[in-house]
């Protein structure tokens, strides 16, 4: 069940999108998110959705896999939808007691829901198509100009790498401990909220013990290989922009221009 | 009580590119009072198989029948199944979490909804059954014990549920020779005193040969062979083929046989080997 979360998961592949430079992908994704906030009508969203659809098709990530990633945010989606539909004033279409549904309410609710869905899918495409290690490498390179003002770019990237690297390990560990306690008759699914919270203790205590043990082993292994931070470190794989990266940059620039024009100068 | 496994198949990550067949068409049965040894190299599917036996994993095809209940059927009470089948995972000491040993061992019985006096009695019995001193150890923290002791406490936590079937996944992994020996003796002692079915997974061929009534061999999700230790370990080439070995003593006597010494085949016990070699040497001398 923990494995159903696709946000932040990598989908192995060898597509054009997978092979792009991580720096280009990070920046393009950030721009895509900004563009979603520039958009102010449904036509803009339609354009963005088509672009996203093409990217998904090229990346060969199955749509069902992406949709599964939306599940955890379903509650958030419904909550904002309900809030918008009831809270916005305007032409009343239906009312019951203190609840009113207005034409503007429906429009805003759908508008916000579409924006949220596109935001989630857009950002999950980044992690689905980028190996976690190259993602953190990309972040490190993008942050390195800020080293001059004292930002520890390498250390931040290293911490992210380690965190990402150990998510599956800790999930496995959680899975193992849960199964072991279930075999001893533990029940995590039924009972009141307090009982369920209490039933987490037999999982959390061993999990923390394991996490500290793993951290200690890792620190020891790093020191044994003389790790001492980012100074004078060279890379085996130097990041270099290739033809497809420039092509992606140009395409994103064109897309940005279209969105801005559509939002500000559209005749309708 | 018996366990029957019929046409068991399990597939991990069904429908993803990482899809992998973990078990395919596994069939075997264990009868009451037997000690079943399970061998296979790392990643062969042993642990996956064990998790099917107490309902932690559901098969994609096939059935697991415990006593007369099909535990893969819908609507079967898992609590009831787990009451009857105790599973001790690899490195079970990592699941210890309570402040004291007694409380930790009591976790299982408590989940069964037993009375306080019954729980205390079972905890005492289980701790003594795994060879620890109840009075001395019950108020200590499980985290301050030695590796071997932790392992025993963790096993006691399952034994205290008085399962009719006790499954142990590599109970001796990572222990020093003395603790290894003690834990194995303890498993035999538990088997002798409770008379339950024990299913033991191990990488140590000598251990398996010593304690099992019956052995199953698993390789990449398939059941390769099954039989008594003598039957299984007489198939040297087959075992080699799936990355396994003979017990050291058998390896030794088989080599002597190849060199021309007249010994019975597939000797599994050191004492038996010593007597047979002495006999062969004596006969050679009288002949010569």
Give the biggest beta sheet of chain B.
6 strands, mixed
**Average pLDDT level of chain A:** 85
Based on secondary structure, the structural category of chain A is: mainly alpha
Architecture per CATH nomenclature, i.e. the level-2 architecture of the largest domain in chain B: 3-Layer(aba) Sandwich
Specify the helix fraction band of chain B. Answer: 40-55%
Number of helices of chain B: 12
- How many beta-strand runs of chain A? 2
Do you know the CATH topology of the largest domain in chain B?
Answer: Rossmann fold
Classify the beta-strand content of chain A into a percent band: under 5%
Mean pLDDT over the residues of chain B: 88
Globally, the shape of chain A reads flat
Radius of gyration of chain A: 23 Å
Describe what this molecule looks like in 3D:
The complex is a heterodimer of chains A (268) and B (288). With 268 residues, chain A is mostly helical. Helix content of chain A is 69%, strand content 3%. In chain A, helix 7 packs antiparallel against helix 8. The N and C termini of chain A lie far apart (47 Å). Chain B has 288 residues and is an alpha/beta fold. Chain B folds into two domains: 3-243, Rossmann fold, CATH 3.40.50.300; 247-288, no CATH class. In chain B, helix 3 (101-111) packs across helix 4 (116-129). In chain B, 42% of the residues lie in helices and 21% in strands. Chain B has helices spanning 46-53, 78-84, 101-111, 116-129, 134-137, 147-159, 177-194, 205-211, 229-233, 236-241, 248-258, 270-287; strands at residues 3-12, 20-30, 35-39, 61-66, 69-70, 85-88, 165-169, 197-201, 214-219, 222-227. Chain A binds chain B through residues 12, 65, 176-177, 179-187, 201-202, 205-206, 209-210, and chain B through 16-18, 51, 54, 56, 79, 82-83, 86-89, 92, 94-97, 107-108, 111-112, 143, 157-158, 161.
């Amino acid at each position: 069940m923990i494995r159903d979360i696709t946000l932040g998961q990598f989908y192995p592949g060898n597509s054009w999108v997978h092979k792009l430079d991580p720096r280009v992908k990070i920046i393009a994704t950030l721009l895509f998110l900004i563009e979603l906030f520039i958009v102010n009508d449904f036509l803009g969203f339609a354009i963005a959705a088509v672009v996203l659809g093409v990217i998904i098709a090229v990346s060969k990530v199955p749509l069902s896999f992406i949709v599964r990633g939306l599940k955890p945010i379903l509650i958030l989606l419904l909550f904002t939808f309900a809030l918008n539909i009831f809270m916005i004033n305007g032409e009343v279409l239906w009312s019951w007691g203190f609840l009113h549904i207005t034409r503007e309410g429906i429009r805003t609710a759908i508008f916000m829901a579409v924006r949220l869905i596109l935001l989630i899918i857009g950002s999950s495409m980044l992690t689905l198509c980028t190996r976690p290690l190259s993602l953190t490498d990309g972040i490190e390179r993008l942050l390195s100009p800020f080293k001059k003002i004292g930002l520890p770019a390498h250390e931040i990237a290293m911490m992210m790498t380690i965190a990402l690297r150990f998510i599956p390990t800790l999930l496995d560990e959680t899975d193992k401990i849960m199964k072991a306690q279930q075999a001893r008759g533990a029940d995590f699914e039924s009972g009141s909220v307090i009982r369920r919270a209490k039933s987490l203790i037999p999982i959390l205590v061993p999990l923390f013990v394991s996490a500290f043990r793993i951290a200690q082993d890792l620190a020891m292994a790093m020191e044994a290989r003389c790790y001492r931070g980012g100074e004078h470190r060279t890379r085996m794989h130097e990041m270099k922009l290739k033809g497809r990266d420039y092509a992606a940059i140009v395409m994103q620039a064109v897309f940005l221009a279209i969105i801005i024009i559509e939002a500000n100068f559209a005749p309708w | 009580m018996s366990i029957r496994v019929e046409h068991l198949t399990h597939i991990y990550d069904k429908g993803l590119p990482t899809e992998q067949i973990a078990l395919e068409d596994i069939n075997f049965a264990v009868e009451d009072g037997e000690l079943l040894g399970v061998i296979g190299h790392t990643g062969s599917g042993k642990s996956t198989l064990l998790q099917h036996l107490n309902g932690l994993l559901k098969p994609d095809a096939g059935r697991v029948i415990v006593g007369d209940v099909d535990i893969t059927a819908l609507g079967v009470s898992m609590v009831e199944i787990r009451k009857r089948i105790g599973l001790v995972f690899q490195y079970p000491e990592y699941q210890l979490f309570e402040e004291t040993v007694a409380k930790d061992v009591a976790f299982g019985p408590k989940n069964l909804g037993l009375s306080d006096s019954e729980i205390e009695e079972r905890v005492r019995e289980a701790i003594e059954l795994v060879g620890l001193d109840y009075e001395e150890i019950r108020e200590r923290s499980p985290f301050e014990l030695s590796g071997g002791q932790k392992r025993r406490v963790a096993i006691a936590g399952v034994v205290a549920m008085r399962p009719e079937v006790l499954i142990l996944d590599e109970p001796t992994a990572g222990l020093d020779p003395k603790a290894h020996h003690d834990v194995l003796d303890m498993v035999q002692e538990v088997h002798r005193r409770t008379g339950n079915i024990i299913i033991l997974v191990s990488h140590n061929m000598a251990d398996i040969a010593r304690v099992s009534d019956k052995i199953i061999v698993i390789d990449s999700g398939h059941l390769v062979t099954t039989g008594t230790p003598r039957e299984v370990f007489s198939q040297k080439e087959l075992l080699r083929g799936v990355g396994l070995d003979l017990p050291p003593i058998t390896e030794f006597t088989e080599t002597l046989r190849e060199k021309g010494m007249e010994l019975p085949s597939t000797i599994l016990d050191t004492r038996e080997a010593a007597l047979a070699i002495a006999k062969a040497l004596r006969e050679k001398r009288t002949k010569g």
